[in-house]
Amino acid sequence: MIAGQRKVKDRIAASNGNEMLAVPLQLIDQFLIDYNVGQALLVVFVLSILAVLPLKSQRLVALVVVVFGLVFLITPSSLQPTAFLFLGLGLILVGPMLYITASR
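Above: the chain's sequence. Below: its structure in token form.
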């Protein structure tokens, strides 16, 4: 029994959790090969807006818009086309307006 436990411990020590991360990282890599980071961020932005809409909070939508505007601005231009930079600027301008016009 001790030899069996030793084999299991050796196998766990050898893997160091890399096997668990291999599949999700391969999926992300395959997705980013076909699309650029700006397009991936745009998909996440749309999904997050759709996730917030059922809460019926305009302030929360405004905060999501501002955060993604900052994310689009902070993302290096080598990873995304320039159009996404302008999208980030637009989102940063629209987000505070949405927040101010939200009813309490």
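The CA atoms of residues 36 and 80 lie 6 Å apart.
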